[in-house]
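General statements about sequence and structure are easier to judge against a single worked case. Part of our work consisted of pairing the sequence of a single chain with a tokenised description of its backbone. The amino acid sequence and the backbone structure tokens for this protein are reproduced below.

***
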Amino acid sequence: MNIPIIYEDEWLLVLNKPSGLLTIPTPKKESRTLSSILNQDLAERKLSYRLHPCHRLDRDTSGLIIYAKGKSIQQKMMEAFRLKKVKKTYIALVNGNLTASRGEINNRIEGQAALTHYKLIANKKDFAIVEVSPLTGRTNQIRIHFKQIGHPILGDSRFAFRRDFLVKAKRLMLHAKTIEFPHPVTGKRLQLHAPLPVEFQCA
């Protein structure tokens, strides 16, 4: 697959993951994931290191994902996530129009604290374009939170029903657009951006 590389050095690889591709296998043990594709490519090129994901994106979410070249770098990056040193920003298209220009969703998910901030970019006919910043990293947090406030993300078939949507979408309209973090080795602050998929550009 032609998976765009956004940033690479001797320790990290940051990619723009396409929608529809798992990061790692689920309990169903899928053989074709982003991690397996990347590491198969390394093996074919006879490179000695392996790539390890430092976080995950849902199968249906596109955008920025960080891989470490080796376990020790992965552990450092995961610690940065744990200490909330990593800032992620998403673009989402959500059902209906929002009345507030910005807001906060502070609802627990599976008993754990979960906090999401959002800013309205534009209200369109029957949907809104929103910039979303999850301050915690619960599984499916953004999808669950926007469903809870009555504005599910367009194309979401897991937490919403097709009849819920005023606008039909062929994919989940959620994209990890920006990620900012201190480099685990150099300490330099990196701010990386992934261009919006074509499905978003016509919104």
